[in-house]
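ok trying again, last paste got cut off:
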Amino acid sequence: MASNPPSKTVVIVDGYSNAPALIDAFAAHGYPAVHVLGSAEPHAAMVQPRPEDYMDWLVCPDEAAVPTAVDRLATLDPIAVIPGQEPGVRLADTLGERLGLMGNGTALSRARRDKYEMIETLRAAGIRCAEQMKTSSAQEAADWARALGSSPVVVKPLASASADNVYICHTPDEVTTAVGRILASTTVFNERNTEVLVQSFLSGPEFSVDTVSAGGAHHLADVWESRRKAIGGGRQIYDMAVLLNPGTEPVTTLFSYVREVLDALGIRHGAAHAEIIMTPQGPALVEIGARMNGAMIPDFYDTVLGTNAARLVAHAYTRPEDFARTHGGQVYRPLRAAAVYEVPTALDGIVESVDEAVLDKLSTLPSVYAVSLRSGPGKRIRPTTDLTSSPLRVLMAGADEEALLRDRAVIDDLKDLLYRMR
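nice, full thing came through this time. structure:
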């Protein structure tokens, strides 16, 4: 740590995944970052924060540690406390409120993290959402699904992410099986599942909607259509996310709806990442995180959008009045057609090597911006069931969607040749 620290800082809680983008964005405004780890040990399944990226590092694993953390942070004169990723949302709310900083506060903090409370808060505000119940009993869940009188239903953990353990169940027996699997597992944040969420199935295309807000003035940062594929056993996987033209529907309708959701959940400051189904009756929330989209890759977003959520967040916190004036109520302006392809696999085994010739072919396709390998020699690959088990992510940018789809067909031909298996 520097002997003469700057007069102002920004605090990032649980800086997993792409949170380093926040470090860079605030540094551009002259604010170094302080990290708070909200657990005794880092969540091993997530991309880890690096102590060397921060000017200071604190650990605040429980409520008893909050007063000490607040006292220490106060000496560093922060302008904001921001969640780096989903695990840090509630602690960031708590620390920011105790420090008297601009933020979303704790009154609705639980509803921004617990998916059951989230939907019930929307229902109380008269906002369209799914029917639901939560339980620790497989029999109770099956009975509720049977009484609902419509099929299928969705069974999932209360507070996970990355499509972790999400099941689409068509019969009470399938519900019972799904509940048993979830209760026998932990979330991607290594938290034990003690209850499950059962919801009515929302039929329609799914969209990923990212916003950044300052003082309740909301900016639409991007909208992607999240295309999925069924893989059997009541499971679906993310397939290809395609950036939408903001001048066409359903973007206008989605932005109007998500602003109602943000206001109902008290998300007035910072980033939010929502998943929304466009049902025949209109948009309905699947879930929303009061943090930056974990799949946001700064350089790629700069290329296709001219900016990225981390930069927008830094602007919103360092110059909130200016952000509200220049970005409030406004929407993104794409520079190129874009897609993110979460490449699936049926391979099952240990990787012996990566075929560099195949990787070169993938990387040099006209619309391929970058290829991100999720596996390598000595690592296990299993058939894809969710985002974390996709062995390959391909970022794509081109003149139009047709160009992207042409290259996607080539990717599908080559994908299972990339990894040589033992």
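cool. Confidence is low (pLDDT under 50) at residues 1-5. The longest helix spans residues 251-264.
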